[in-house]
Amino acid sequence: MPVSRLKDVAGGRLRIGALQEAGYTTVLSVLEATPYELQKLPGVGQQTRWQAQRAAESIARATRQSCTAHIDVDNRDAETTRLLVALYRLVAVGPELPRARRTAGAVVRRLNELIPQARPISGWLRRILSGSRRRTRAAQAAEQIAGLLADETETRLLITQATTDLLRPSPDGTLAWIDFEIRAADYYNLLAELSALAPSDRAAAEGFLPDDLAERVRGQELDDTLRRVSLRGYQAFGARFALAQRRVILGDDMGLGKTIQAIAALAHLHARGTTHSLVVCPASVLINWLREIETRSSLKAYRLHGDERPLAHVAWLERGGVAVTTFDALHTLNTVPQVGMLVVDEAHYVKNPQTRRSKAVARWCQEVGTVLFMTGTPMENRLEEFRALVDHLQPGLFGQVELGETTDRAQEFRRAVAPVYLRRNQKDVVTELPDLVHMDEWEEFSSADAAAYRDAVKSGKFMAMRRAAYAVPEESAKLERLRELVDKAAHAELKVVVFSYFRDVLAAVGHAIDSPVHGPLSGDLEPGRRQEVVDAFTAAQGHAVLLAQIQTGGVGLNLQAASVVIICEPQVKPTLESQAVARAHRMGQVRRVQVHRLLTPDSMDERLIEIMHGKAKLFDAYARRSHLAESTPDAVDISDEKLADRIVREERQRLTTAKPAVPNTNDLA
To answer: Residue limits of the Helicase C-terminal domain (predicted)?
Structure first.
């Protein structure tokens, strides 16, 4: 930092000219200087020296308190390489190491008690000199030692495996860097644990819960016997919250490991006697859930979906474990009394209580004691959506709380929901993430684009207006800019994800670019196949492009391999965009993520963004811990159909078309 920053801390009263003339040009140079060195400088008196050093120390303290651990994969210096090599073996051992240490400690403590008791029979002379009572006690202690060593097969395996992993040869630097890129989240978890780094704002890491509730959650035990993953502090708190409160919504930002927190809670309950649990999720993430459960825990997972569902269902009922099913299949399953925990992923799917999936979830909620809803977007358009989710868990929790009149009501709402709703924001708890850079790419309509847009406005087709910029791919200005962005990424060997709401837009993109293309991920692609596409994209060497419908690729899939995200058009729901971006910018990402949103001036894009900002304010006021939005919720509570009508009317007026007509809202599907 330049030495001039000292004046900011000293309130502008510090004269630093003499320091600069003497070669003290940085804050560090002042910090490292001795009082004698500074005070002997011409023009630097005792007061100036004292103020300068106090200001430098203040800046140093603030820097230490705010600094975060971040490993730059593009700057592989020797010191960081040594750090990764040192961490490599500890990461390889994983959470088995502390468990092995605790187990070994328990064995040692027991042996330390028994061995002295058995000593009287350790030799013929001691046998003779010991009385019969001591020899009897010694024989009993010897039997217990033999039993302890003979029966602890699992203990012996645990300790042996941990010891073997720790004794592996150190890898070379290249292997350590490769391993870090593959499982960066594990390295950062370990760094946070070893260095005692924690979010600077504990209240934010605990979701700003009331003090008494936060204290109760901290006191909740969390058994890790069946868990195979280390937890960050905020993740352990989330799992404890689910266990302590029993019927809750975990509303963390995307990318904070809600799945891991759910698995930690499941593992605790099964370690304490629960035999059966059930996970309900969209079909697109079913395979990911099966993988995560069996990778991150010792629990057995059963796929209650597709052709294998009948046999898997029988096996689950007989043997116990965690069954994973989809929203569409849930209504076919009868409730099972022995189910100890129900996890509902992407719980905003059941915000409408009238749908079949919502009724099926409600039926299970009534029968299961511990229920965890997971969603980063509990409210997309209307406050009643949020309230509907809470009513599944705690009917009538809000009592007479009214919604949508003043900002004071938002505070009342948050106070009422605290016992059932926990949310942490990414910027508060995952401080090592590389930068997320948003860039709006404004491209003027080409003549062909403009003609297609005017035709769509005239016919009142809202969705045609949204994709008019791609109606003639050969002359599309947006598509030309997209090609340029992909070419830049190719030169830098970066992976790219292209999101659009429309399949025909993705098809146009696929034909327009020369890069290796994966996908598209779309709603009609079988869930298992979606994961295969993502795996192939992740495994591809160097540059590649993944095409995805934003309503499909933005849910449940992990896309950390991508460091460039291109969104072809603004979305009707702001949560669609934030979910999609969070699939790449999430825990485990090691490179800066660039997000490019393709927009057209003097079009519906401008109006749509303005209205979406209003919807985002509504979410901030009620569902995110932040400053209250200035506008009343009613001002931004807009359904998709009303939004379509409003934008079409305004664009018709702007383009001075002849007669206003009712937009074709059937085209909104």
So the answer is: 481-644
